[in-house]
Amino acid sequence: MPNPDVQLPAVALVHPHDESDNTGHPGGDKDEVGLTGGLTVIVSGNWQVHALTRPGVMRSLQSSLGNLTRLTRRVAHQPLRWDLSKVTALDHIGAQLLWNAWGKKRPVFLLLSRQHRDFFKRLEDAGALSLPAAPPPRRLLIVIYDWTQVCIDHLTGFVALIGQFILDLMRMLRLPHRAPWKEISANIYHIGFQALGITAIVGFLIGVVLSFLSAQQLHTFGGDIYLVNILGMSIIRELGPLLAAILVAGRSGSAITAQLGVMRVTQELDAMEVMGLPHGFRLILPRVIALLVAMPLLVIWTDAIALIGGMTAAQLQLGLSPTYFLQQLPGAVALPNYLIGLGKGAVFGGLIAMVACHFGLRIEPNTESLGQGTTTSVVSAITIVILADAVFAILFSGVGF
Fold it and tell me: How big is the CA angle at 210 (ends 204 and 215), to the nearest 5 degrees?
């Protein structure tokens, strides 16, 4: 609660014949650079932040200081003296306010208490704040060239990472007893098992929504029995793998990038290089293999839960029993569609892991790069997964129908 006894800050211009005898105390507790005659600005009251922030105070002070600035320009031939001897309290905020009113330099004629001298001494020593010049606007061709260079850099780095993974995989196959089995097992647990809950919830809801929407349209044309075909093909061949991949990219892909980024920030990656531990064999290989193994299993899990959701909605909407649904499903969805879905899961898992590791190893040792790299990793992984899904759709357009 504000103290009502605090004297509010004030500024007043005093004409020489109105000025009282308060301008000369040399050798006392005030510093003075004085003159006789001219105008005097009397600054008084409490110039600390809690007094300046009271309602209406800053607006009044800025108005008074603005009027003084305009007045001094009109009477520039007359010397102007600033008397701060009646200031009861001062802090850096109040000193900066006066310093700005003086044009960021000490007035020639100034009466100042000794206890307030250090505030202005520090402002004077700091000097004017010089900002760097704004960079010239870049032309469109330069922007396109820079983006092309960045894309080429990422593409070559990604291809090199894939090559390093293949070499590490061959090394593991040649020396299986030296493979990082514990890291692989731990990553399968974190990436696969711990993602069962979220994939089940989302898969069930997607199955319910898809079944409800499809049932409404099919019931209009009397094609209720084809609901099994629509749900089976769409979930097993497309939605199941794609849904699991997007969830894993957002959950596990970001985690992988953040883990590698934190290792960069804490210099653990540098320590591994010093100890002769290759990043590819100890960090990238376990994560990629874990996702290659876990993603097909997650696809099976997501397909099953989504079909359960679809069956539930079909029972409620069209009265199709789960028994009828399960009997018709093998005939509606051929085995190649199921294998294509599993293959998509493995490919999506490998791409997510490689993209996450690629951006994780490129993070600079600062927190801003860590956040930016993690975001870029997730967006890139989802985009690449969708592109890969489109490639699958084109390549296997004639399979499974």
Answer: 125
Burial group, residue 142, by CB count within 10 angstroms (0-12, 13-18, 19+): exposed
Whole-model pTM: value is 0.67
In the structure, what pLDDT confidence band is assigned to residue 212 with cuts at 50, 70 and 90?
confident
CB burial string 300-337: b at 16+ within 10 A, e below: bbbbbbbbbbbbbbbeebbebeeeebeebbeebbbeeb
The amino acid sitting at 327 is Q
Q: Residue 36's pLDDT band (boundaries 50, 70, 90)?
A: low
Per residue in 170-200, pLDDT (tens digit) is: 999 998 888 889 999 999 999 889 989 999 9
Q: Which residues contact 1 (CB under 8 A, 6 or more apart)?
A: none
What is the secondary structure of 216-234 as a DSSP string? HHHHHTT-GGGHHHHHHHI
Q: Could you give the C-alpha distances from 227 to 316, 318, 329, in angstroms and in order? A: 13, 9, 10
Locate 153 and state its tokens.
Answer: 């850099």
Hey, is 108 helix, strand or coil?
coil
Report d(CA 107, CA 98) in Å as an integer.
10
